[in-house]
Amino acid sequence: MDLTDLSLAQAARMLRDGEIGSLELTRACLQRIHRFDEKQHAFLALRPEAALDEARQADRRLTTARGEGQPAGALLGVPLAVKDVVCVTGLPCTCGSRILEGFTPPYDATGVARLRAAGAIVVGKTNTDEFAMGSSTENSAYGPTHNPWDATRVPGGSSGGSAAAVAARMVPAALGTDTGGSVRQPASFCGVTGIKPSYGRVSRYGLVAYGSSLDCLGALTRTVEDAALVLGVMAGHDPLDSTTLEQPVPDYLQSLTGDPDLHGVRVGVPREYFIAGIQPEVEQAVRQAVQVLAAMGAEVREVSLPHTDYALPVYYLIAPAEASANLARYDGMRFGPRQAAPDLWQTYAATRGELFGAEVKRRIMLGTYALSAGYYEAYYAQAQRVRTLIRQDFDRAFSQVDLIACPVAPTTAFRLGEHTSDPLAMYLEDVFTLPANLAGIPGLALPCGFDSQRLPIGMQLNGPPLSEALLLRAGWGYQQSTRWHLEAPVL
Amino acid sequence: MALTREEVEHIAHLAHLNLTADEAAQYREQLEAVLEYAARLQAVDTSSIPPTTSVLAPHSVTRADEPRPSLAPEEVLRQAPDRARGMFRVPPVFE
Question: Which residue, A145, A217, A189, A267, is CA-closest to A430?
């Protein structure tokens, strides 16, 4: 048995039952990273010695828990990875940017702290587009990640390192962040499962801010069960994030039991999502996946989200506007390197001009413009009002159906360099994922097939706010009936 | 949506970003393209539509103002590119 083939839930179960040890599992993951990451470049930082130490401690605790008949932590001894825009104590957090080179946060993000409290072992930090701005991981200042299914192609982004690491069986799960699709789109491109929770369900404390009204901490895993496990540990109110919701967190794993039956569940297929420009194989695979849901008892009907066309321009005004404010803190004064210049103002401009990458500067410029005197009303305020219309589209749709099924992205993984000179073409990759962030609703990406190049295709399920339990149940049911999520790339 | 070179320089100034001449020229073109794409929003009638600033219902987040543990100053200052006497040292604001 190859330990790196185990899902997170399988590994956690076998660790508890004493069938495997955390040290051998963690070592197997590190060996696989060591063997393949030179080619994949999924990781920006590793902590092999510390991870192996924690694995030894986990093994001792597992033995004690078994001996005393006590329950062990839900993730005790399980290795995982964290996207490099999320703080882990003592590990560098670069956000894929030179402006944070050498920054080592002295605290854990709440999501990370909760996973560690449940016994998880962080093995390293994964590559990302700079400050999570991108759809291909090519905007990392430290070089792109390669897609495990085809090294000449991008893994998607911005959580491309996490998606590639999970697809390549380097870790059973990795954290990602999703501001406009950055968990779901790389999950789709790499053939893994990705959950973006409802806004406010998971704390953003320790997640380096990009677009604060949109940012969500999520997870990339190989199965829906694993996504439910990670989400269940991370979710819930956090006094350190005033936007987290007080509502209790359901037992997501509990909703993944019994007969995977979808009778009584109404699934809407938005007609605006099957547009010109969508790769025909993507449309075909997603429509077939919807048929699987129907065969499981779901009632499928068409719905309309009439303002879909506006989601992209709304997002690319609101997210950069928020980013231009959030990234004002990177000025070379309190952390990261500083470019020498004669006075304070020139130091700010020199540090930021020199150390931010092209896409980050582009979005700061765009956001600054949209917020500037004379343009605020026409761009930023108008985008916020159209955002309301997009939310209302979903409210109306969810009065008719329980879930929405659609593609994650219009295409499969594109080639490295294919869109780098045309920002707008790159932005269009996010067209089906942005609306969920604008509306604050959850999204689940599920592998649902391959194109003729054997590149993975993803289906997305969306539900109303806080519908994660239903979303996960439907996704779990789909994975009980299909085998796409079990396919592994040959590295 | 035509952007002038001066406008691009003005935005860069507002954002505290030094740009090279090449960058300024490239951003002028690329921002123009994105803004032109975004212009389709102007066609939407939003006269009776309130803006969304957050998807959450507004709620109060105040708490008692009580002292509690925080990071030690040395820990915070360890990340700074320049520091002196327990403070961040910055270039002169005024001469």
Answer: A189
Identified catalytic residue from A7, A22, A83, A162: A83
Q: What is the pLDDT of residues A173-191, one digit of tens each?
A: 999 999 999 999 999 999 9
B-contacting residues of A 370-429, CB under 8 Å?
A: 372, 378-379, 381-389, 391, 423-424, 427
Question: How do strand A217-221 and strand A173-177 relate by DSSP bridges?
Answer: antiparallel
Q: What percent of chain A has pLDDT over 70?
A: 100
Which A positions 295-314 lie with beta carbon below 8 A of chain B? Answer: 307, 309-310, 312-314
- Catalytic-residue membership of A421: no
Within 8 A of B38 by CB-CB distance, chain A residues are 313, 316-317, 379, 383
List the one residue out of A7, A403, A78 whose CA is nearest residue A224. A7
* C-alpha separations of A269 from A123, A181, B78 in Å: 39, 19, 53
**Calpha distance A143→A129 (Å, rounded):** 9
> Angle formed by the axes of helices A8-16 and A48-68, to 10°?
50
Residue B11: enclosing H or E segment and its boundaries?
helix B5-14
Q: Is the peptide bond before A158 cis (omega within 30 degrees of 0)?
A: yes
- The confidence band for A40, taking pLDDT boundaries of 50, 70 and 90, is very high
- Give burial (CB, 10 Å; 0-12/13-18/19+) of B64: exposed
Q: What is the largest CA-CA distance in chain B?
A: 57
**pTM greater than 0.95 (yes/no):** yes
- Angle, in degrees to the nearest 10, between helices A224-234 and A110-117: 110
Which residues are bridge partners to A221 per DSSP? Answer: A173, A193
Look up the ipTM and state it. Answer: 0.95
User: Can you tell me the distance from the alpha carbon of A122 to that of A77, in angstroms, rounded to the nearest whole number?
Assistant: 10
Predicted confidence (pLDDT) per residue in A64-95, tens digit: 999 998 888 999 999 999 999 999 999 999 99
CA distances from A36 to A1, A18, A238, A287 (A): 19, 29, 37, 35
Q: What are phi and psi of A461, to 5 degrees?
A: -110, 135
Q: Which of A182, A198, A324, A467 is catalytic?
A: A182
